[in-house]
Amino acid sequence: MSDTILRYIPTDPSWQPSPANATKAVSLLETIVPGADEVTSSFEDEIRFYDPGENWSGVKCSACGADAEEWWGEAMEAASASGFKNLMSVAPCCGATVSLNDLRYVWPAGFGRFALEAHNPGIGDTTAEQDRKMAECLEAPLRKIWGQI
Ligand SMILES: [Zn+2]
User: Fold this and answer.
1) What is the pLDDT of residue 1?
2) pLDDT in tens, 94-132
3) Near ion ligand 1, which residues have CB within 5 Å?
4) How many C-beta neighbours within 10 Å does residue 46 have?
5) For residue 77, how far is its CA from the centre of ligand 1 (angstroms)?
6) pLDDT tens digit sequence for 6-41
7) CA 124 to ligand 1 center in whole angstroms
8) Suppose 54 and one of 41, 86, 92, 148 were both cysteines; which one would form an S-S bond, judging by CB atoms 3.0 to 4.6 Å apart?
9) Is the pLDDT of residue 89 over 90?
């Protein structure tokens, strides 16, 4: 059996909430997924990539829509060498300069230094209203990533 992780990360990869707001957000998420094994928040020193695990469904160029999986790995390695401080990359498909964080991840994924996580939340999905409340609580726009590990 694989584990399901519901994750909220800020849309801005370097942004972090105040510890007080992070604590509030954990409490709020606990009320949304009361059956979860565990709800946690994590602050990271460096930007990392939050992938959806087994839900990974490919990645497309944000400028032209072409399949980006072929060059994505190499671009990730290059960005990783700088601790993901610079996420800009030239897409070989169309020559556009794109942010790795803005690529069209067919199943949502993204970069961040903060994540709010619910382990095995036991629900199909959160509602748009719940997502909005989470963003309000953290005082930042969020990206939701359902992971399967
Ligand atoms: Zn392109």
Assistant:
1) 72
2) 999 999 999 999 999 999 999 999 999 999 999 999 999
3) 61, 63-64, 66, 91, 93-94
4) 10
5) 19
6) 999 999 999 999 999 999 999 999 999 999 999 999
7) 33
8) 148
9) yes
